[in-house]
Amino acid sequence: MTKVVVGAHYGLKDWLAQRITAVVMAVCTLIFVAVLLSGGPITYDSWKALFTKGLMGLMPFLTLLFVVSALIHAWIGVRDILMDYIKPTALRLAFEVVTILWLIGCAGWAVRILWRL
Amino acid sequence: MPDLTAKRRRPLWFNLSPLNLPVPGLVSIFHRVSGLLLFLGLVWFLFLLDMSLSSESGFAHFRSYVGHPIVKVAMLALLWAYLHHFCAGIRYLFLDIDRGVDLSTARRSSYAVLAVSLALTAFLGVKLW
User: Fold this and answer.
1) Residue ranges of the domains in chain A?
2) pLDDT digit string (tens) for A20-65?
3) Given CA atoms B53, B55, B58, B63 in this order, what sign does their dihedral have?
4) What gap in Å lies between CA B39 and CA B27, rounded to an integer?
């Protein structure tokens, strides 16, 4: 080994963020599935109402929390995959930039969908 | 200069190691593949959400769109990816806190992840359509 890594928490923040966002999304998923399975047949009005004032008005907040978590979680995951398989630095950097822009675009779209309601 | 090396053809070695991949390894690579699938499917999911929440007619269009067999198969694949990523992720959270790290438990939990995610995909798939 030519490079000695000294110091602490190399990548610890990302590691932790990956797990915290995972738990947040898992809880949101369970709540969402429970709401869907407990409700009756879905119409446009009930579907729209779910996202605007579902769960006593908590649904918009939960959805936003999910979107932000997904953004962070996906970025760390995709970055890990890129680090493993794409060795040339310039190419990997290009992929990483595209991934970041893509994810920010997706999050923006999600916010726009929910904002419009 | 005479070629002193490679007098005989060396035997071909087929890489059969994927066939010997242990189940926890299978869960691991599926976790990665499903995660990538979800990343790639994200934009399509947003497209569907946008359509379903846009208007009354958009919702009706969404209904007929997801009724198409090819769309159903694609959604089922993404549903599996989500559920597998979900189940395997919970397993990894337990491994992170040193629960179930011995070999036999790790193997059994791997089988459980594969089975539960497939069963849930079937259950929710039937439930949704």
Assistant:
1) 12-115
2) 999 999 999 999 989 988 888 889 999 999 999 888 889 999 999 9
3) positive
4) 18
Q: Quick check: is B2 in a domain?
A: no
B82, part of any domain? yes
Contact B93 A22 (CB under 8 A): yes
- What predicted TM-score, i.e. pTM, was given to this entire model? 0.86
Buried b (16+ CB within 10 A) or exposed e, B61-79: ebeeebeeeeeeeebbebb
Asked if the structure places residue B10 within a domain, the reply is no
Cβ A113–B49 below 8 Å, yes or no? Answer: yes
Reference B39, options A70, A113, A101, A28; nearest CA is A70
Q: Which domain holds residue B96?
A: 23-128
Q: Return the CA Rg of chain A.
A: 19
> What residues of B are in contact with residue A17 (Cβ under 8 Å)?
none
For B53, the closest of A26, A51, A74 (CB atoms) is A51
DSSP state of A39: S
What was the ipTM of the complex prediction?
A: 0.88
